Amino acid sequence: MSPFDQLEPTALFKALESAKPTDALPELSALLDAVRFNADGLIPAIAQQHDTGEVLMMAWMNREALEETLRTQQVCYFSRSRQKLWRKGETSGQQQKLKSAALDCDGDTLLVQVEQTGPACHTGRRSCFYVSLSTEPPAITSEPLIDPKTLYGKKSP
């Protein structure tokens, strides 16, 4: 039994601040109960290439997407525009295999380390973060790896 088992979900992450790597944690379902999903039931999820540290993208997960990701080891998000689960790569083939998942100290942001197949961005680029604001003038930092029309099976007009 974990010393954290008797805590209310709202108190769990505060109590984990003093936890040690050797401490037993509550069951996964109790941790998921304590996740601080926003008013829409979503949590931001940052996808990072596991072996290089490259930040690939940020998307949203609801509890169902998070549970599916953990269960299948294939990353699943929640599409706010379509209001449904979005299994990364289901239309493009550019999947993300889960290597690890970690919540931040507040339980309100998720980091998923993945093995990315091809580009992560719908523009065909490896990363969604290609508009640099660190230079004057701002600059595009990468070329698409794949034409988005090809990536999503759309024919050119």
Automatic annotation (TrEMBL):
<comment type="subunit">
    <text>Homodimer.</text>
</comment>
<keyword id="KW-0460">Magnesium</keyword>
<protein>
    <recommendedName>
        <fullName>Phosphoribosyl-AMP cyclohydrolase</fullName>
        <ecNumber>3.5.4.19</ecNumber>
    </recommendedName>
</protein>
<keyword id="KW-0028">Amino-acid biosynthesis</keyword>
<feature type="binding site">
    <location>
        <position position="128"/>
    </location>
    <ligand>
        <name>Zn(2+)</name>
    </ligand>
</feature>
<keyword id="KW-0963">Cytoplasm</keyword>
<dbReference type="InterPro" id="IPR002496">
    <property type="entry name" value="PRib_AMP_CycHydrolase_dom"/>
</dbReference>
<feature type="binding site">
    <location>
        <position position="121"/>
    </location>
    <ligand>
        <name>Zn(2+)</name>
    </ligand>
</feature>
<keyword id="KW-0862">Zinc</keyword>
<feature type="domain" description="Phosphoribosyl-AMP cyclohydrolase">
    <location>
        <begin position="57"/>
        <end position="130"/>
    </location>
</feature>
<dbReference type="Pfam" id="PF01502">
    <property type="entry name" value="PRA-CH"/>
</dbReference>
<feature type="binding site">
    <location>
        <position position="104"/>
    </location>
    <ligand>
        <name>Mg(2+)</name>
    </ligand>
</feature>
<keyword id="KW-0378">Hydrolase</keyword>
<comment type="similarity">
    <text>Belongs to the PRA-CH family.</text>
</comment>
<dbReference type="InterPro" id="IPR038019">
    <property type="entry name" value="PRib_AMP_CycHydrolase_sf"/>
</dbReference>
<keyword id="KW-0479">Metal-binding</keyword>
<comment type="function">
    <text>Catalyzes the hydrolysis of the adenine ring of phosphoribosyl-AMP.</text>
</comment>
<keyword id="KW-0368">Histidine biosynthesis</keyword>
<feature type="binding site">
    <location>
        <position position="108"/>
    </location>
    <ligand>
        <name>Mg(2+)</name>
    </ligand>
</feature>
<feature type="binding site">
    <location>
        <position position="105"/>
    </location>
    <ligand>
        <name>Zn(2+)</name>
    </ligand>
</feature>
<dbReference type="InterPro" id="IPR026660">
    <property type="entry name" value="PRA-CH"/>
</dbReference>
<feature type="binding site">
    <location>
        <position position="106"/>
    </location>
    <ligand>
        <name>Mg(2+)</name>
    </ligand>
</feature>
<comment type="pathway">
    <text>Amino-acid biosynthesis; L-histidine biosynthesis; L-histidine from 5-phospho-alpha-D-ribose 1-diphosphate: step 3/9.</text>
</comment>
